[in-house]
Each structure stands twice: as structure tokens, then as C-alpha cells.
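Q: I'm a student working through a structural biology exercise. My instructor gave each of us a protein and asked us to get a predicted structure, then write a short paragraph describing it. Mine is D-aminoacyl-tRNA deacylase. I'm not confident about reading structure output yet, so if you can add a plain explanation after the C-alpha cells, that would really help. Here is the sequence I was given:
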Amino acid sequence: MIAVIQRVSESSVKIEGKVKAIIGLGLMVLLGIEDADTQEDIDWLSKKIVNLRIFPDENEVMNRSLLDVNGEILLISQFTLHASTKKGNRPSYIKAAKPDFAIPMYEKMILALESELGKTIGTGEFGADMKVSLVNDGPVTIVIDSKDRK
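A: Happy to help. First, here is the predicted structure for D-aminoacyl-tRNA deacylase. I'll explain a few features afterward.
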């Protein structure tokens, strides 16, 4: 499971011209799921995301977590995070999980993040053509691959 995490002052997602979700201060997370992912990946990654100390404290040092700043999450599924660009110029998405596996994993990640955060999160819609907007605060962007935890 790969997550691209961006600290935002605001973020939103539109589907077919309608706002599906909007958040203020928090994290916009792009999530890529592969067939090798498990509940262990979800549990580890959801804890990591919610507890990342990437928000500034009173000394402007990144020392506060999403919990500390009462921030929000916007979670967007993005299979293209598993693109392979080793050959040619057209990416291959062979590593990305197919919807029958990825959708339940995405839904489990939503539940895990909501449990860790203690509130409902914003989401996109799996497989939809989404228009994501954000104001990256910092900018701060972190990439985490759950397979790199060991």
C-alpha cells in the first residue's frame, strides 16, 4: 500500500462537477492498493498517517500530529501510484489491485482512519473520474510504502 500524504490548509474532491468532500486543515492522502496488501498494512499505515508529526508547533517546528491539531483527512484512491515506468513511455499498472480486491481494502482503510482519528473522513469514489483540489501547506508531501516498514 502506497500513500502520498500532503499537509493541506484545504482540499476537496469533485465528481461530475459536484463536490463530494471538502476539508480544511489536515491531510489529503492518495492511496494506492496492490494485491499483496493485507489488514496489517491498513492497521500500520492508518496509525502512521494519523500520528505523523508534520504540523508546526508554537516554535514552527513540525512536531504536532493530525490529532494534536484536530485536523481532517481527505482519502482518495489512486491506482496510478503503482505505475511501472521501467519499459517504454506508457506506464503499466499490473501491480495495482483490481477493483474486486481494492474496493474492500479502500473501505477498510476508511474505517481504520476514522477509528484512529475519532471522526468521519472525507473520501473520493473508487474508480470515478475525480477532480482533486488542494492547497499544499508548506509544501509538505510525504510518500509512505507499507512494504518498507520492515
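A: Here are two points you could use in your paragraph. Helices lie at 39-51, 99-117. The longest strand covers residues 130-145. It's a good idea to check both against the output above yourself.
Q: Great, thank you!
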